[in-house]
Design goal:
mainly alpha; elongated; 226 residues; 0% strand; single chain; 11 helices
């Protein structure tokens, strides 16, 4: 029993672990680390501070961090990842954009930014961001999957509209039929064709059954148009 008491007393005498420190205390250490040129240590402390109190840590970023410094985008990346984990997609998007101002060609950050745009309902913006990703990394799996599915669903929507409009015509003329077929051909060229290219790239990188099934549907559509 005396041994247990002694061990407990020694434990109380030890300094508190970093995780038990408040965000304010950690941020004070961040300032000291930055002043001493210890950027890596500052980033580590900043990450722990975000875990201890993200609101306080975000305020520190806006008011105490030189945005032209080398460490600023690293802090932004920490906050972006933290907010993403919290599912606060608006804040995560904000800080991914902050990071990308300094590192516009960072593929992982662009992919995460596109994810946040999708979660925020900004589908068109996500489309453009994923296209940027593929300009930097043509084999990026997530971008190819998104774009392949996006253009396939768009093609299906346009095809359905053409078919519904054509069925409304009681006795279609040859000209109307020709317009219908031309419309289908345009849909295939502009949407199905793009979807096919992206999904083929997916299969080159990853054996996706879903991508394979979608490509079979596109192939069937292609045969019907011939």
């Amino acid at each position: 029993m005396k041994s247990l008491t002694l061990l407990f007393s020694l434990f109380l005498m030890l300094p508190l672990p970093v995780s038990a420190q408040s965000a304010g205390e950690l941020l004070q250490k961040v300032s000291e680390a930055l002043f001493g040129g210890k950027d890596d240590y500052a980033v580590s402390l900043f990450r722990q501070s975000a875990d201890a109190g993200v609101d306080c840590t975000e305020m520190f970023y806006w008011t105490n961090v030189d945005k032209n410094s080398e460490v600023a985008p690293r802090f932004a990346d920490v906050l972006a990842a933290h907010y993403k984990e919290m599912r606060n997609y608006d804040k995560a998007y904000l800080f991914y954009k902050e990071f990308l101002q300094r590192h516009p060609k960072d593929v992982p950050a662009l992919v995460s930014c596109a994810e946040m745009e999708m979660m925020r309902g900004q589908e068109k913006d996500a489309l453009k961001t994923y296209e940027k990703v593929l300009m930097l990394d043509a084999d990026n799996l997530q971008a190819n999957i998104f774009l392949g599915n996006y253009y396939y669903l768009q093609a299906e929507k346009d095809k359905k509209k053409l078919e519904e409009d054509y069925k409304k015509i009681t006795s279609p003329t040859r000209m109307q039929y020709a317009c219908y077929r031309n419309g289908l051909f345009d849909v295939f060229t502009n949407s199905y064709g793009k979807a096919k290219a992206y999904l083929q790239r997916v299969l080159q990188v990853f054996p996706s059954m879903e991508a394979g099934n979608t490509l079979e549907k596109i192939k069937k559509m292609e045969l019907e148009l011939k």
